[in-house]
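Predict structure. Chain length: 262.
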Amino acid sequence: MCRFLAYRGSPILLEELVSAPTHSLIDQSLHAQEAKTGTNGDGFGVGWYGERPTPGLYREVCPAWSDENLRSLCAQVRSGLFFAHVRASTGTATSRSNCHPFVVGRFMFMHNGQIGGWARLRRRIEAMIPDELYTSRLGTTDSEAILLAAMAQGLEANPPEALAATLAQIRGMMLAESIRDALRFTAALTDGETVWAFRWASDDKPATLYWREDEAGLTIVSEPIDDHREDWHAVPVGGFMVAREGEPAALGPWSRPLAAAA
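Prediction complete.
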């Protein structure tokens, strides 16, 4: 499974979280400790908000640990809201267009999980994407399809509800096809101002997700990036977080998809 990191707070250099810590995301690309596989070498990506309402994006197919440009970029770019992701493919091709984060307009999204039976359901799930957004479908991953399908469910108005409705519809397809593999959704989403993070799975076994909030801001990670594990808090199974400017991060249950997947 993939590893990712999201940050919202005072502007900092990306390297402070992505590359400098002892168990940074770059280190996790080779030595993940809380994933099914310790290596996440099927590409990477970073996305950040700066002077424009839409994010900057750098994605590559080489492993994060071997890309000198990534370290150089992280040492120079400062942002108050950024995502970073290292990928372990669940079956789709290793290509730049399949690397996270994914961007649609002002929204940026990354995912650690799967749609069970994706190959069987891909055509029907892609049919959930609105015609006017289908040209934004650049890759072949289930993750990008979820984001684009959620746009049709009102993502711009209410992201948690839109994503829940999308997953409920996908789960219904899986049940109709008697697909036993799980639907797993550990993810982060932002519109450039608010950050949402989710941890849910149809089998109650979602990928790990932790958070830490200090005077600088909120950091959300797949696994702790340093040795101070006592500072990190697990997002509960079925939980989600929301962080808005000027407010402390809020943590609560995300019950609708749980009910829909029963």
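Summary: Helices lie at 15-18, 25-31, 68-76, 118-126, 142-151, 159-176, 256-260.
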